[in-house]
């Protein structure tokens, strides 16, 4: 099997998932720079899968690292460019190639390179990514965000915190909501069916949105009539469903106004952190996050909350102060005992020694 055919089979399988920005796989010049098409073109569309090795991977990585993206404009209005991130290179080259090869190998019995590539070490070609520290939106920051962001974005943000759903999972439709059984039914990451309970807080959030749109729950209102660069026309005053990229764009514009540097996925961790702070056991909010086991939640959230770590640090300080005070008291007692055991000098001898010193002078 050649790489182009393998990529086509892989895309057919995943095209309705959450990573649609990697495709679509197509020979149409309009989609030539989509990651999957670009990767096939760089390595070679007619190259056999069993011939692809580390050299091909490194070639693709080197080419991808030359790409840049816009990062604003200068004082004259000219666009500024910067290299794409390490994460983007790894996601659109190394991991993408591995996914394609593993898919056709496991599902279509296609042989891989001989000697076979050790896929456990296949990612050695990817660059080290800078890890971002976990971020939790504090209640104070949530109030500031509510006053700074556009009103249409607030219900979606609050819904994400209450449900701890991922962004693409939050973009639900009215048929998925059943107020009678108080359930929201959706397909979560991995293709698993999931039900989310409609709590009174979630119901108060959703009820006012009824009637905004025929099918979609979370929408935005066009402030002016315009046509975007993809040819989509928006009429002033009409509502349109939020999309994955639309939410991300609005978040990048609105949240910095409130001084909050965070991404939408941080709302998922924020909701879980609120549950932990409220005393909810980890096995409960692990299910709320949709994790298969608690071990995943412990890695995702950490074993201890910031408040628990702070309390542990205070206990450590108190223990250390007590130990240090005890050690200082013991040393003082030992010094006093040593002084008490030293014999006192005869006063007569001391006076004679002083006289001899005066005479010698």
Secondary-structure topology with pairs:
Elements: H1 3-14, H2 35-43, H3 54-64, E1 68-73, E2 79-83, H4 86-108, H5 139-148, H6 154-163, H7 167-170, E3 177-178, E4 183-187, E5 193-197, H8 200-206, E6 219-221, E7 226-227, E8 233-234, E9 239-241, H9 244-254, H10 266-277, H11 282-289, H12 294-301, H13 306-341, H14 347-360
Antiparallel strand pairs: 1-2, 3-4, 4-5, 6-9, 7-8
Could you please describe the fold and organization of this structure?
48% of the residues lie in helices and 9% in strands. With 361 residues, the protein is mainly alpha-helical. It folds into 3 domains: 123 residues, no CATH class; 164 residues, Orthogonal Bundle (hpI Integrase, Chain A), CATH 1.10.443.10; 53 residues. It contains 14 helices and 9 strands.
Compose a concise summary of this entry:
The chain is mainly α and 361 residues long. Helix content is 48%, strand content 9%.
Under CATH, the topology of the largest domain can be stated as hpI Integrase, Chain A
Mean pLDDT metric:
83
Give the CA-based shape.
extended
Determine the structural class based on helices, strands and strand pairing: mainly alpha
Number of domains: 3
What's the N-to-C terminus distance? 108 Å
> Helical element count?
14
Strand order of the largest sheet: 3-4-5
Residues in helix, %: 40-55%
Share of residues in strands: 5-15%
The biggest beta sheet reads: 3 strands, antiparallel
Elements, N to C (H/E): HHHEEHHHHEEEHEEEEHHHHHH
How many strands? 9
Question: Any idea of the CATH class of the largest domain?
Answer: Mainly Alpha
Low-confidence stretches: 120-124
